[in-house]
Amino acid sequence: MLVMLANTGSIFGTAEFWVAAAFVAFVALLVYYKVPGLITKALDERADAIRRELDEARRLREEAQQLLNDYQRKRREAEDEASAIIEQARREAETLAAETRQSLKESLERRTKLAEEKIARAEAQALNEVRAAAVDSAIAAAERIIRQKVTPDVNSRLIEQGIGEVKRRLN
Questions:
Q1: What is the reported pTM?
Q2: Low-confidence ranges of the chain (pLDDT < 70)
Q3: Cα distances (angstroms) measured from residue 150 to each of 12, 139, 141, 142, 162
Q4: Of the four listed, 17, 36, 131, 155, which is most buried by Cβ atoms within 10 Å?
């Protein structure tokens, strides 16, 4: 029967009609089996999944931002603490340097004073040694001179004179 309809030259004989009829039948089958609802449901599920993923991504982004802010705050605090430690160390170093300079100055003053005292003692000892040597030399020279100049007569007269001087002073 289709062949007869196709040969009659009516609208049923054109290829466009049969393409349109097949398309309408196809769409009718899709509607009968509720394919558009299934497609809509699948698209809605996919949209919900995408929405959940976007919400999760937004939440993760907010957490990451909060972590970033926390780490930046901790970094600033660490930098401030490091600056405070450096400043404290600098002050302690300056104090230690001043104390070291002062103790070095005091040590040098003590050592200078000890050296001056030692030099003064050495000078006094050298002076005493020179005086002792001069006295010894004078005694030796006087002894030589006396031996050469004093004769036994002069010697007895000097002894008598010395004894007389002692008696006079004692009385």
A1: 0.41
A2: 1-9
A3: 187, 15, 14, 11, 15
A4: 17
